[in-house]
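Researcher: Here's the sequence for the chain we discussed earlier.
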Amino acid sequence: MPAFGRPGRLPGQSPPVWRSRRENELFAGRDDELERVWDGLCRHGQLVLVPEGNLPDIGETELAGEYQHRYKLRYDVAWWVDCGQGADIAAQLDELADQARARLADCAADGAPVPGEGWLLVLAGAGSPEEVEPYLPGRGAHCLIVADRTADSWRERTLAIGPLRRRESVMLLTSAAPMVDPATAARLGELLGHRPGLLAELAGYLIRETAVTPELCQRLLEMAAARPAPAAVDSPPPASSGTEPSGGTEPTVRAGPAGEGGLAVGGRPVVSSEPMGPDGAVGRFGGRRAVGDQGAAAGSGAAAGSGAAAGSGAADRSGAADGPAAVAANPAVGGGGSAHADGPAHAQATAAREVDALVAALMRVEYIADPGGFEHWLDELTRLLGRAVALTSPWLAVRLTTLVTEAVREPGRGMLDALVQSLDLVAPRDDRALSVVRRLVTELVARRAGGPEPAADARVRAPAPPFVSWPLGDGVAPSAPPPPRGPAGAAAYYFFTSHAHRHDRDRVVAFHRELEAELRRKVRRRVEPAGFLDAERMGGGEHWPTALRDAVRTAPVLVALWCDDYFESDWCGREFGVFQERIRRATAPGGKPPAGIIPVPWLVREADVPKAAQELHLARIDLGRKYDNMPVLDLMRHPDAFAEYVSLLAYRVMDVARDELPPLAADATKLVRSPFHPES
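Model: Thanks. This is the structure I predict for it:
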């Protein structure tokens, strides 16, 4: 199979037949493992991903989801199949056959599609590959299986997934929880075994429990690690590490991958008494079969594991609710352990569960899973509340967790009611997830009032939202486009801070926040001057994270922190190049180009400015002879002078934003390369 895009496909375009988990915005690293998946599928056609050493929270399901998104140009069919407990695999394959007949030219309308080259099936949530073998197509198609364990007949076709590398742990934790500095993130990664699920749960806990600092979590984990192990006691042998119930009657605890690669929802295991496995039927690519309730909801279990844009990946393979911010399973982090039912620990745990459940339900509302839809909802929520809620993170899961935490903690029901009312104003009425959100809020309010909880509506199935990916197959949004946030409304962000990945990340964050705060003091009330700051730096690679790509192609102003490292960074060059391309396209023949880019002297440079950036000039901001030639990083040591600099810089950003630089299409954005090193 050729290692390039299928004929006629544009960058970023999904295959004609496509069903997936939502793309995980917080996915970090794993480039080598993704290449090994591709190589293994090309060599064997079928490959099973299992956790190395039976470790939980490794992220094998998130890896499979990332592979499907990152390699989608190489397939005409890419289909995610949920194989968890209760999932109707056959119904999902029947739906695939229907889609293939409708969308693929080489499939007869009345015949059974024959999977072959250009097909990818991802079967996630199996106990072992043998459980899904009856459903696998013949040779030619790529079949990627995510299982708890392998089998002897699959040894050569097994790829064991281990913990993250140290730098990948730092990328994940600092991206999901911006308050964590890289050194602390590295130590927390070591204490948690560099397992993405645990790191994601910790990040969610830090986002929700604002009184808890990363340093306190580090101390608690170090104390827990230093304690001697308890003496061994005689106990019955543990049940099988798989997912099948012992004896077929006792419930099985499925400790699913809480937060594989992203923020987690419930680090708690899910108990189920239903046996797992295929129903014995074969040949599912041909023939029409009625889809019952389980089949209709089959996609939801698989999708639930990913969470929207945040990559929560929290649901286990049985289809548990997805969403961010679970209390860490480790007692040192999550406040676990027994507590009196009426004590503060019990109240805190109850509030945590309420946040988890409501965030999980909101993550299933398809409209707000889209960045533009979320901003539309946030605008309506702000209007109903009569005040703004500070959301500093670009990641959907983090923003939802912040909103829900404030709503749950706020006395009274005002903000909870506003959450539901604003959703009713913007989201399509046929989204079943809305009913789940309303029910959870109603139950929460009833518990607070001390009254009886409303009876559950038997027609509402919480874990069964529609299984769709964004955008939908035909590219049509579910409702009218949301109102914009930026100047004259074109952009989701008012400015974009472009910086090199260095050991001054804390200073970059401080600079970005000061500029954002100053803009809020200066712009008109109807404008939300939120800036985008990439909390992580990916290093090399071709994959544009969705949030970064959308921000850099739509924000009207690039604030570039110039230093020698900036001009050596390929990512900085690509961000700079996107704005150059936008400026070029916006400039009429013989006309004056819009500014678009504001260079900031971040450090003293030793090398020359690349030719592509030489036409730009650093804006002179008169701060007096003592500070005139001082780079901004050093200027931050002088609070009064720095405050004056940021104030004047904010006016400059407002002037440039008025040019209303047109956005660049997402497909064109992916093609841009760094102009700093055009020969590379």
